[in-house]
Amino acid sequence: MAARLTALGALVIDTDEVSRELTGENGRAIASIREAFGPRALTPGGAMDRGYVRQRVFGDAHEKKRLESILHPMIRDEVESRIAKATGPYVVLVVPLLVETEYYRLRCQSIVTVTCPLDVRVVRVMGRSGLTRAEVLSIVATQATDDQRLAVADELIENAGTLEELSLAVEALHGRLLNCARAVAQE
Questions:
Q1: Which long-range contacts (CB under 8 A, 24 or more apart) does 142-146 make?
Q2: Fewer CB under 10 Å: which end of the chain, C or N?
Q3: pTM of the full structure
């Protein structure tokens, strides 16, 4: 969906992508992560060891809070910097933990929730991350429920069908977002 919106002219900012940049080799967050979690939290190449850090923070609220206190302000700063430089008709923020992160909910003029059945999501996450089903379900259990996501949504996109169906839904959404952007520009 994000790739299709980008192709249609939107600036898409993915907070997970920003996080990966910050925690990659020579990323701005690396020194703070090393200081907070020790040298074991880094790969030999100098990136954050995502598996190690995931094991430390999921299940330990204090450790999770410590990681979030490092990353969230940096992510917000980078997102705001990219928004300030935007030249397209509108900006799309991809925020997987939108419900849990009030800052982004308040920052957005319209919230689009993309949904599909849990089993489909689990298989997709396993395919792109290499995590086991149990690991994915453990992570999902710490996140907002589908009902909570739907409660904050202004728009809903169902992503359980074909890529063609998703593309048609995204094109229709793009039209609505363009109209919204024009209305905001006229205010």
A1: 142/58, 143/96, 143/97, 143/99, 143/100, 144/97, 144/99, 144/100, 146/115, 146/118
A2: C
A3: 0.85
